[in-house]
Amino acid sequence: RREPEFSVVVDESGVPLANGERVEHANFDHAASTPCLSTVAEALSEALPFYASVHRGAGHHSRVTTEAYERARRSVGRFLGVRTEPEDAVVFVRGTTDALNLLARSLPEGCTVIVPESEHHASLLPWEHPASRAARVQRLPLAGSPEAAVEAVRTALAEAPEGPVLLCVTAASNVTGEIWPVRELVRAAHDEGARVVVDAAQYVPHLPFSLEETGADYVALSAHKLYAPFGSGVLAGRADWLAEAAPYLSGGGASAHVDTHDVVWNDLPARHEAGSPNVLGAIALAAACETFTPEVLERRHVSETVLLERLRAGIAEIDGVEELTLWGPEHPRVGIVSFTVEGIPADLVAAALAAEHGIGVRDGLFCAHPLTRHLLPEGHTQAVRASLGVGTTGEHVDRLVGALAELAEHGPRWEYVEIDGRLEA
Ligand code: PMP
Prior knowledge:
InterPro entries: Aminotrans_V_dom, PyrdxlP-dep_Trfase, PyrdxlP-dep_Trfase_major, PyrdxlP-dep_Trfase_small. Its cofactor is pyridoxal 5'-phosphate. By secondary structure, the protein is α/β, with parallel strands linked by helices. Helix content is 35%, strand content 18%. The chain folds into two domains: 4-30 and 294-424, Aspartate Aminotransferase, domain 1 (Alpha-Beta Complex); 41-291, 3-Layer(aba) Sandwich (Aspartate Aminotransferase, domain 2), CATH 3.40.640.10. The strands form six sheets. A seven-stranded mixed sheet has the order 4-10-9-8-7-5-6, with helices on both faces. Strands 13-14-17-16 form a four-stranded antiparallel sheet, with helices on one face. The mean pLDDT is 96.
């Protein structure tokens, strides 16, 4: 049964199989992007007839849109548990990658950044970009347990040179779904006067996250992983570094006064939102944030965990299918599982699941190359990832387990050829 507040606008459309049948599409690629919630679509269709440029227009539509945009900012802030004393900034950006690049360019003089090598590239690489203001970046090797991860962070913090330090960590891995010990890491960082930014892209669609409760200093997320469209996201957290930094982009909106010799930049959040902002994206993201109250997320997590465990138990029964895990099968996780199938490359597994069973998964290294490569069993160069979300049913899970059992035992039913870089039946 699907509850109304969770209903998605586009999800299980019928897909043709290689044998000519049509089946309901079983979407197991929520960790990449999620379909639009009906509450999000409603908020968007309300805004569409009115939207106009924000902050500058005196006309009715511009004022309504400005109000909606700022209301969206407050909603997203509430969703992320922003603090009021001192007030956290909520900056609209294009997504998590954008948010972390903005923070990398807003670091104070002489800042050391510590980042585990297990991170998604969006949180691993921005600190090393030429435009990053990090004075040094220390990558931590993969840790064999959550305790070892905290210990490695403590050691790195103790050894860090004088000056500001930022620790970047993920809240939930996009490869294994494993949940990181954010509170312990924040405590370790704060003990040494360091700050923490949390990449919550994969966590917030599954569990509530609060800056206030975790004590984290910054958090980043993407709307398209939270059942709202692409192109919108947020960086929320401590205002001081962001307020003192040069604008992320130069242009209108970020500038308060410009003459022949001088530019005065705006205060936050406009300072980092140059150009006409993505108002519809912000409204859509806010509608998703309002739908996923902490109670709704907690409830969904319980039911999703039942499905996830059914999937993991099914996979564990199949000879030759191996789940990837950094911290062991018992470690808490969100609805993501990556695995390999012995003797069949990941792209062929994914192609056969799609063409023969109507199941959409992802194959590859999931933009977390160091972590995924480390976890792959010998003989494999890539993995398959199945991620659960709104609309995932027990039938989908059983179909995936059945399909994998068949594949592992008999191989694909069809022959596949590479066309434009993809395998087609
Ligand atoms: N962090 C994590 C953990 C992710 O899974 C992703 C998306 N795969 C990102 C960051 C990047 O998000 P976006 O592509 O929306 O910027």
